[in-house]
Specification:
4-stranded antiparallel beta sheet; alpha+beta; atp-gated p2x4 ion channel fold; about 400 residues; elongated; homotrimer
């Protein structure tokens, strides 16, 4: 390569260029041309057009998500109720993590006292009092062991007595009857603001430039084909789009993701940079999701009591990701350069063939490699016509 | 290029070097030198000094944010109150998502019963009972339809009756009178711990090495110039710095981002790696932010009742991002190599000029390209003085 | 380099190859071979085997985290209680941000009224009434100034009177006596679903294919050696693994990170892509963590009162990060190419030595550089046997 050649100042501006040997070997020549074309096609077709490697990319998107649920459902708790978002959504403030109660097991009027632990908890099983260490909490249980082992009538093994909220939570799986039927029609509004700090580019998924936009938001409902950019989603649709059945998921609960993908080519104008919504199930069919809430109150005599709800429901996680791309000179050069370097591999290959697989190989080798005998003094002169008054240069 | 040349073992240590033709063409020589300098300047100036491409970078920062609000405000609800952080901040536990109540619409003493839905809700409008399907929830509404259409006196169209919390929420926009005046002076303390796992580097935005640091934290308030590293922010300042007016935003609410940018050159020492705070509005001027909270209680006769608050306020999102850079040999080589390859493009250009645009081009071409005639036998010999006993090599 | 040579169509398939000069200088030859081997070793050993630069990587992992705490503790508040997750975990819904109450300062029976501000608050200190501006909130305080400065008996300076919840919160540090002793044995279950969108690869840290998996989950407890993939963690272990003492941290609270690292080589099969759990302290030993909760109620005469809890506890942040790698042709080429280019630097070095540091340098220079005198007409002919009827080519 020519880039590093230095000369002593006098000949700084002599131009030095590589010497080539031209062979009229059509076979190798053709082969080499084909190779050149292949590499060029790869560079232009794949690297540039397909993979857009001439662009720099930022795949760390800064994101802010606001969410809001709407809709009401009738709930048959001990005191029959109507639930709005203020009741069935956790947390209330509308983050990117959402839990919508769709079912529950209610255990009313628990009071502090002693009773037997749930039999389903391994740590609470016992055969004698010694198995229930006093003051020790039951692992994954509901109370502190009192030291007694409550035997079942005539049975040899029993369950530890605990100090805690009694009676303990009801057994068994959640009941289809308590499901919030109307939950399927709840609507979720998502406001997502994103920023690619590397390119100092920001955008929101909600367009609110004029009153028409407001009207649109009041009425629209997300649909992949008809309303791909409407940020309002029906809960039932979200679940069903993941291939799960809503009414089933509503019983035991489930975990689902709303993915917002921002793939933006910033060499085009902003209007081409839009969110793409997709939906996935964040767990196997078998896994539900639940947690517990307690409502405390005082009974007639002012004794503290509580109602415990084990709530099952839909966990929604709004997952925002994306990539912004913009032309970048460094990336362009790196990719061109590396592909060009590839070419040398080609000439290497062709040389091998030329110098070892052709019947005139010997002759070609002599031409390509000019040997200098160790003690040969004149040979260089032979090829340097200007004789003695010649000048040297590197 | 020289890197791949192989020989048969005997001559493994012969040194083979490219042969050059030296022309004394000053024009092309000068041109080439200029090109060389340009490329060098680009490599050193832009790629290395400006873009620091010799460093590997990690732009996925792991972050943990803790926040804490301080300050109280007087609130004129039905029972006049003083609100502290335990009342006006959601969620309580201090995440990177914060909502500070600055205004509200209170609807006291709601009880379960039947009443007419809010007239502003499209789905609730009706002209006859048939329009109000029994047991159906009003979309984006407050209750379950009872099947009755309540006509306005003498009017032809009316509003569906619903079963829900009655009376329904008060109409209209939030009132300036209810705004928490003192909210502007609330202070937010942010503790941000970050980690660049790729370089196994961690740092916090809060420095607590000695008692002085504690005293500083007790008294300081963030200011871009005076206290750029003080992690305590005045709510009013945050909003105003985004170009919005706090007192206006306080009425309808708004969404704002506190961006913490960590740009760390890990080739320098840690003390150079500091957070840079900036503030942006995460929505247009017109969009507010609100959600609803219900406070349940029992009235004199023990009948369940609730007070519904539609709360408006400032949503703060703490957005942490950053890039860590550190010297990396692979990146360095890739960048140098690609730029060097560029040079070849230069010699290509110069050759074109030399071989086709100079008046002595023909002569230069003959010198650069040594042609071998198809059936020429002696020619190689001519240039190989050691005659027959010559050795071959690739 | 050979890649850019063009000819006029007639000789499109002539093969042109670089001309070399072969010197029998063993020293330089050996030197060059050594250099070649070094570079090759670097390319294969470091770049490919060690750094796997032939793979493209995605280091922005999309993640969804669900958490659930289990365990109970006895708490000695004014009305002695048993606390379950529904009481001591914030927020309830199980996000990646968790706060577990381990201690608290209780201030019971606060009522709205006038009293003196806490003396520890700088802004509340005063010497005369004028220091306490009426209607102004105390910065970082508990109420609104009434305009009075309450002097301590005989003292010259005093504390502003405030309107707020009185009496104000108890002074001082949290007490070891109130710590939730059983907290150390609370267990945390983490469900983490991750996705590398670039490679469209998803996985969960919880395996639930068959009933055995369920049984395993019911009984296992994370242990680096025995159960590295069990997603259930003992709170005490988490804290202790970070090098902090749990019982100490429980008093003032602390902030800890559970880091889940997904490093996946997608060229291998999925079973090799597993989470790696590690634990760090997100703050210095001295910093605790706390926030306040208020429980409102009505006293006998129906006057609103509240119990204020300043809760201290363990903040857990689940931090998910990772990198997925997969073979990519572009990366491979870029890295090979750049290293090959390196070789030229080697031949440069060797040429310098050969042409300037050998005693026969002059002779080598003449061989490598074929000078063309400005006005020399015959010289090219000398080396072009086919004389006049020669053809030109570039």
């Amino acid at each position: 390569m020519a880039w590093w050649r230095i000369r002593h100042p006098l000949f700084l501006f002599d131009y030095t260029t590589v010497k080539y040997v031209v062979t009229q070997n059509r076979k190798v020549g053709l082969l080499y041309r084909i190779f050149q074309l292949t590499v060029m096609a790869y560079l232009i077709g794949w690297v540039f057009i397909e993979k857009k490697q001439y662009q720099a990319k930022d795949d760390t998107v800064e994101s802010s998500v606001l969410t809001k649920f709407k809709g009401v459902a009738s709930v048959n708790t001990t005191d029959f109720k109507i639930w709005g978002p203020e009741d069935y959504v956790y947390p209330k403030q509308g983050e990117d993590f959402l839990f919508i109660i769709t079912n529950f097991i209610e255990t009313p009027n628990q009071e502090l006292g002693n009773c037997s632990e749930k039999s389903s908890i391994p740590d609470a099983n016992c055969t004698k009092d010694e198995d229930c260490i006093k003051e020790e909490a039951v692992r994954a249980g509901n109370g502190i062991k009192t030291g007694l082992c409550l035997k079942t009538a005539g049975g040899s093994d029993g369950i530890c007595e605990i100090k805690g909220w009694c009676p303990t939570e009801k057994h068994g799986k959640p009941d289809k009857a308590t499901v919030l039927r109307q939950a399927e029609n709840f609507t979720l509004y998502i406001r997502n603001f994103i920023r690619f700090s590397k390119f100092n580019f920001s955008k929101s998924n909600v367009k609110l430039n004029n009153s028409d936009d407001y009207l649109y938001l009041k009425s629209c409902l997300y649909d992949q084909i008809v309303h791909p950019y409407c940020p309002i989603f029906r809960l039932g649709d979200i679940v069903n789009k993941t291939g799960r059945n809503f009414q089933e998921s509503a019983i035991m609960g489930g975990s689902f993701g709303i993915m917002i993908d921002w793939s933006c080519d910033l060499d085009k104008e902003d209007s081409h940079c839009n969110p793409h919504y997709s939906f996935i199930s964040l767990g196997s069919n078998t896994t539900g999701f639940n947690f517990r809430i307690a409502e405390y109150s005082n009974d007639a005599e002012g004794k503290k009591q509580r109602t415990l709800y084990k709530v099952f429901g839909i966990h929604l996680q709004i997952i925002v990701f994306g990539t912004a791309r913009k032309f970048n000179i460094i990336n362009t050069i790196i990719n061109i350069a590396s592909v060009l370097t590839l070419m040398t591999a080609g000439s290497f290959l062709c040389d091998i063939i030329l110098l070892y697989m052709m019947k005139k190989s010997t002759f070609y080798r002599d031409s390509k490699f000019e040997r200098i005998a160790k003690n040969d003094k004149e040979s260089p002169a032979k090829k340097m016509p200007e004789g003695p008054k010649r000048k040297f240069s590197l």
